[in-house]
Write the structure tokens for this entry.
Amino acid sequence: MKIVIANDHAAPELKFEIKEYMESLGHEVINIGTDSTESCHYPEYGKKAAEMVASGEVDLGVLICGTGVGISLAANKVKGIRCGVCSDTATARLIRQHNNANMIAFGARIVGSELAKDIVKSFLEAEFEGGGRHQTRIDMISAIENER
């Protein structure tokens, strides 16, 4: 898969670890995050990564900031994006299986590198279960998005 990874100043070290890990799993990873710990603005990175996912330029996205919340909020403002904050593997798996999430976010100040790798692996290996109640709910979310 082709995956974009983005981060703010809280996460350059973790970003590099996760990028390398995803590449070791055979994925092509595009780094658009900051490589510096100098203060920057996560909405810029979340938006750019989300636009790449929404346009189909990449298949999925991985976002990292201090908590994962801010960057995910920015990403979710882009039409067609379903990004969830995960700090455990079960949530990472379920947001793909039930919500067909196309991006994941987590916090560098919340999860360590080994847990972050496990979260990413769970997210990437999971597949949308499709149809039924899950598709109905995704369609409802899309309808809300289209009201704007």
Notes: The CA atoms of residues 7 and 33 lie 5 Å apart. The beta strands are 2-7, 28-31, 60-65, 83-85, 103-107. The longest strand covers residues 2-7. Helices lie at 12-24, 42-55, 69-75, 89-97, 113-125, 132-146.
